Amino acid sequence: MDAIEVIRAKRDGVELTTAQIDWVIDAYTGGGVADEQMSALAMAILLNGMDRREIAAWTQAMIRSGERMDWSALDRPTADKHSTGGVGDKITLPLAPLVAACGAYVPQLSGRGLGHTGGTLDKLESIPGWRASLSNDEMLHVLREAGAVVCAAGSGLAPADKKLYALRDVTGTVESIPLIASSIMSKKIAEGTGSLVLDVKVGSGAFMKTTETARELAETMVALGTDAGVRTVALLTAMDRPLGLAVGNALEVEEAVEVLAGGGPADVVELTLRLAREMLAAAGVSGKDPAKALADGSAMDAWRRMVAAQGGDPDARLPRAAETTTVEAPASGVLTRLDAYAVGLAAWRLGAGRARKEDPVSAGAGVTLHAKPGDTVREGQPLLTLHADEADRFERALEALDGGYAVAPADTGRLPLVIDRVT
Ligand code: URA
């Protein structure tokens, strides 16, 4: 077999055989297929698609390229959540300890932000001392200590995906449902969780801009998980506006802690509780009320244990950006639109995100919202506060927000927070 034969087949719209898929992933991981050949194949897949059998074979081959974690020594079921990424999406932070407090273990391998979407590890790293890199033994220790662990995937997990994702990122081949679904699910299946809830975001701030494409991605991922023996469900949730009132690393940790303390913005609380109930049901844990675990402090206790077990100080003061500026409401009326992509881009330009994987992020940078779509505002009242370490970042952030919000005499409606459930 050779790479040219496989590329030509997909280029000409021919289904790849399982043997071809196994060979190409194996050879690419080992260096026998060159990056330029894999780029051509990724583009052919983006243009011509893959059917369910091809996607399943591709996913299994990527899982086999590395180690598969095993939590069968634990005495309780495992559950995880994966979000396809958005703006202000800090849900993992309150959710993981909440589900742990209700009786399931949460072993979550998470990622860093790229572009306008934030990454869970970047958020947690704004806590002084907190460490993202753990060995498998350390993961097990944190799980036993706190019930939940959120850390970086080691280099041994789905190495084929690591290589391929970096390549897709620079060759315009990220936006392919078969490639996104197999990339996400290879890591989640290799992570060894018994059950998985997918939060597939829909809207301007998400990969998937429409409910139809999000549903196709969700159905593909649910089928991959289910076929691999992982109890998998997906929610389609709104990402046309930011989630919560804080966008940016330390700002989002603060908001997550408010939720764990029994407060926090209504949408963050609602989605956290909904996902917690889905995770517990998928894990087969019954008789626990996540709302009670938020109210009685047991979720907060699990959070504190989880942060401390990974070297972080849960009582430390979080970093603050040195400079702020405000954006005011241009008129009185209803805030009908506050675009997730515009706010995410602004936060990125303020320093909260990175342009290249190796770039550092600012812990304190970001955007605070003072109103959400649907709220009544008065002309001149603060709508947003922008936070940055250097004041010269404000100009380009304000440009990103230009046209990203609207105030009108009457509300125009928006996507429901939870749009649909896919099983
Ligand atoms: N996240 C991933 O892990 N892979 C993709 O392809 C897209 C988002």
UniProtKB/TrEMBL annotation:
GO cellular component, one term: cytosol
Stated name of the protein: Thymidine phosphorylase
Assembly notes: Homodimer.
PROSITE patterns: THYMID_PHOSPHORYLASE (PS00647)
GO biological process, one term: pyrimidine nucleobase metabolic process
SUPFAM superfamilies xref list: Nucleoside phosphorylase/phosphoribosyltransferase catalytic domain, Nucleoside phosphorylase/phosphoribosyltransferase N-terminal domain, Pyrimidine nucleoside phosphorylase C-terminal domain
E.C. numbers: 2.4.2.4
Family: Belongs to the thymidine/pyrimidine-nucleoside phosphorylase family.
Organism: Nonomuraea mesophila
Range of residues in the leader sequence: none
Glycosyltransferase as UniProt keyword: yes
